[in-house]
Amino acid sequence: MRVPETCDALVAALRTYARHATPQQITQAQRIIEFVQTHVAPWRRSTIEGHLTASAWIVDEAQTHALLVHHKKLDQWLQPGGHIDEEDLGVFDAALREAREETGIEDFAIESVSAPPIFDVDVHEIPARGEEPAHFHYDIRYRFTALNRATTLNATEANALRWFPITQIAADETIDESVRRMALIFSAS
């Protein structure tokens, strides 16, 4: 990822996002801004206390269903996403790469390619596993519309992939709170 230009652009995008966010999301955005501004390479997994991650809220063209992946390690239905690679040009590029890798979908409608708005943010703790200590993911989430829901889904990086009605996601208390929040945000937009 390119620094410092990309980090500066991310901070600006987070400030823009916070202007229209809920108080809880403003707090999350401010926490991510502080993290980005106080770390040399906030996307690197070697940053012990945590790192930036990138996710995709993928909806169908009818805007009625969202695509979730059943995460192998966490055993939960979540949005596609993951770590930022050194080759990624920025956080949005990482979110798009992760969406393609985790779903097999190649074609997405994107609100704005030059400066895509942040859809949601979330800071969450990842439990310790093996040699890896507990740490935080500072997750930046972008919205994508899959142009062909009939595309054969590729679940090589997850237990399963499934299109869920957005109303079901919002109401299902077994689904992660931050995923339910994205369903509510999307429904309100």
What does this structure look like?
This protein is of the alpha+beta class and 189 residues long. The chain has one domain (5-188): Nucleoside Triphosphate Pyrophosphohydrolase (Alpha-Beta Complex). It is 32% helix and 26% strand. The protein has helices spanning 5-18, 23-37, 91-103, 166-171, 177-188, and strands at residues 50-59, 65-71, 76-78, 81-83, 108-109, 120-126, 135-146, 160-165. Helix 1 runs antiparallel to helix 2. The model has no long low-confidence stretch (mean pLDDT 89).
Number of helices: 5
CATH architecture: Alpha-Beta Complex
Q: Regions with pLDDT < 50 over 5+ consecutive residues?
A: none
Under CATH, the topology is which?
Answer: Nucleoside Triphosphate Pyrophosphohydrolase
How big is the Rg?
16 Å
For the structure shown, list the relevant keywords:
Nucleoside Triphosphate Pyrophosphohydrolase; eight-stranded mixed β-sheet; 189 residues; 5 helices; 8 strands; alpha+beta
Write the layout of secondary structure elements.
Blueprint: H1 5-18, H2 23-37, E1 50-59, E2 65-71, E3 76-78, E4 81-83, H3 91-103, E5 108-109, E6 120-126, E7 135-146, E8 160-165, H4 166-171, H5 177-188
Parallel strand pairs: 1-7
Antiparallel strand pairs: 1-2, 1-4, 2-3, 2-8, 5-7, 6-7
Helix pairs in contact: 1-2
Give a quick summary of the entry.
The chain has helices at residues 5-18, 23-37, 91-103, 166-171, 177-188; strands at residues 50-59, 65-71, 76-78, 81-83, 108-109, 120-126, 135-146, 160-165. With 189 residues, the chain is of the alpha+beta class.
